[in-house]
Design goal:
334 residues, 6-stranded parallel β-sheet, globular, Dihydrodipicolinate Reductase, domain 2, Rossmann fold, alpha/beta, 13 helices, 2 domains
Length: 334
């Protein structure tokens, strides 16, 4: 069955979602909605779809079975709840919201109305991540000893102040680099390592904005594993993202840069190291297109999406705990 989608929002990421929907044979892009009439009509003309200004009117459209929400972070749950109450499936960009209570209300609304809820986290679809997850779950390299994630990007202050400056404002974005960019790696650590127990973090404000441009945090997981993450957008140039996992019988290195993803596995067992040399490869990265395909399939086959609302909630809870820790200058429970 082809699922009719409406995109809610017209920013840069909305075009990425539109192209992904158009390439999926089980999706049909029906409409777009923006509070700005000119932007809505321009977007609709480009993709030959309907334009809506009134969200309530869009939700009455029987050709639409699902909404894809790509608006400002603080509007995600509010718009998602309205869609769920109109019996529309909900796919929302990360973060699920900027507030845990609203995020929980969105999850409850989708369950109550028997509609699917997915949160965009396309990096979970990376083949390298999926392989690393399998190795960790099977304990092929033994007990994990330490984990470190690094994200050093170059984003200007103007980037945060563009599109009306919503990314630079605490009330609309929820924060800076932590909730906008580093959220990908917080989410991957949660996916790979399990439930978090406590965090300790500090933030930096080199750009002198309302929101942070750097974060350094430690996450303690319930299985006693400890992970460290450093992320910034003030690097002179964007460097490769890495996740290094040291285990008692070897190491896993996940490396990502300019669309190239490499998984390197080193085992202290020589025979296993030779066997695993094939993993030192260029591995297909995950994509929004892949996640939309999974979400559509979850609707058609009445199953849970690969990334659920609960997954998005867990990631947001870790992020908000890091913000709390930085404010209180001490370790806090998640």
């Amino acid at each position: 069955m082809r699922i009719g989608f409406a995109i809610i929002g017209t920013g840069v990421i909305a075009h990425v979602h539109a192209r992904a929907l158009l390439k999926n044979k089980n999706c049909k892009l029906i409409a777009v909605r923006s509070e700005n009439k000119e932007r809505a009509e321009e977007f609709a003309k480009k993709y030959e779809i309907k334009a809506y200004i009134d969200y309530e009117e869009l939700l009455k459209d029987k050709d639409i079975q699902a909404v894809d929400i790509v608006t400002k972070n603080n509007k995600h749950a509010e718009l998602g709840i309205k869609a769920a109450n109109a019996k529309k499936h909900v796919l929302v960009e990360k973060p699920i919201d900027t507030n845990l209570d609203r995020a929980e209300q969105l999850i409850d609304a989708c369950k109550k109305n028997n509609v699917k809820l997915g949160v965009i986290s396309q990096k979970r679809f990376d083949k390298a991540i999926l392989l690393a997850k399998r190795i960790i779950d099977k304990k092929e390299l033994g007990k994990i000893e330490s984990v470190k994630a690094n994200m050093k990007w170059h984003r200007t202050k103007e980037y945060y102040e563009s599109s009306g400056g919503w990314r630079s404002k605490q009330d609309t974005s929820g924060g800076g680099v932590l909730i906008i960019q580093a959220i990908h790696y917080i989410d991957l650590l949660s996916y790979l390592l399990g439930d978090a127990q406590s965090v300790k973090g500090e933030l930096s404000y080199d750009y002198k904005m309302e929101v942070e441009d750097g974060v350094h945090a430690y996450i303690k997981f319930k299985n006693t594993i400890k992970a460290e993450i450093e992320a910034t957008v003030t690097a002179p140039k964007t460097m490769p993202d890495t996740i290094e996992i040291k285990c008692e019988k070897g190491n896993i290195l996940l490396y990502s840069h300019n669309g190239i993803h490499i998984l390197k596995i080193h085992s202290r067992n020589l025979l296993k190291q030779i066997k695993n040399i094939r993993y030192l490869l260029y591995i297909k990265k995950g994509s929004i297109r892949e996640q939309i395909k999974d979400f559509t399939d979850s609707i058609n086959n009445n199953r849970e999406p690969f990334v659920t609302g609960e997954d998005g909630f867990k990631t947001l809870k870790i992020i908000l705990s890091i913000y709390k820790s930085a404010k209180l200058k001490k370790e806090v429970k998640v």
